[in-house]
Amino acid sequence: MMPRKGYVTGPTGQIHYRTLGNGIPLILSHQSPSSSNMFQGVYSLLAEAGIMAIGVDTPGFGMSDVPNRRPSVADYATMFIPIMEKFGLDKANFLGHHTGACNVCEFSVQYPQRVAKLILNGPPLFSSEERAQRIDKPRALPIESDGSHLKTLWDRRCAATPGYSDLDAMQKGVMQTLWAGETAWYGHKAAYEYDMIPSFQSIVVPTLILTNTGDDLYDISRQAHAIRPDMDYTELDDGTHDIIDEQPEDWTDVVVAYLKH
After folding, report:
1. pLDDT given at position 96
2. What is d(CA 166, CA 246) in angstroms, rounded to the nearest whole number?
3. How many CA atoms lie within 13 A of 38 on its CB side?
4. Is 216 within 8 Å of 222 (Cβ atoms)?
5. Segment 103-148, tens digit of pLDDT
């Protein structure tokens, strides 16, 4: 089964989505720089389990329009309202991975009445010091006539993904960065500017913190659970931030069990 694709009009222009399945609605928000394609390996698994999965391309990524100014996480959160209207949803479940976790966290704080359950997959709950260290990381690479920028981009992602085991996921990640182009850094910049801790502390909807022991945000996810021990918590073994490609069945089982509990 392959997802259907479509567009809705939002505050930042056309927003692209992929959807598959019927039943419990789950809106998926990807990490940066990526797109709703990062969930390609689990759309059919979710659909078979009775989930209506809706992956959304964050503005400026995938096939969504690039905003006319650099967005904040609060801006990104506005994309979910037109998606919900498109599908006639008064309430839905939300899952966000890394930067996507910021987006759905902010949405749940702004519109708690629209969120049934929330899944934060590797929430980037950075301290102000950690955010300051990351906020001015290199932006878009200049295009080199010998193509060496492509190797540089590959090396960067390898360095950020120690222990990776899925070569296709690595290539897909690099391709998504290239597709986003000169504004590929917008997502990370928004995430590092976003002080997630106050929003995270004020979440009132049922929430699962999901992580895996090989994720680069694993320790932060554990800290998040220490801050909110009332939230549910699940961790998978090993993997990287490409856990959805590396362990699609195990990841899906956790998500479905939580939504159906």
Report:
1. 98
2. 6
3. 30
4. no
5. 999 999 999 999 999 999 999 999 999 999 888 876 778 899 999 9
Q: Is residue 54 within 8 Å of residue 29, measured between CB atoms?
A: no
**For the domain bounded by 4-260, which CATH number is listed?**
3.40.50.1820
Following CA atoms 54, 55, 57, 63 in sequence, which dihedral angle do they give, to the nearest 10 degrees?
-90
Please give the backbone phi and psi of residue 140, each rounded to the nearest 5 degrees, phi first. -65, 140
Q: How far apart are CA 108 and CA 131, in angstroms?
A: 22
β-strand partners of 119: 95, 208
pLDDT band at 55 (very low <50, low <70, confident <90, very high): very high
Coil, helix or strand for 42?
coil
Instruction: Classify strands 51-56 and 13-20 as parallel, antiparallel or unpaired.
Output: antiparallel
pLDDT 10s digits, 188-197: 999 999 999 9
Average the pLDDT over 11-38 and give the result.
97
Q: For the chain, what are the domain ranges?
A: 4-260
Residue 62, classed as helix, strand or coil, is coil
Q: Give which of 66, 58, 73, 60 is closest to 27, Cα–Cα.
A: 58
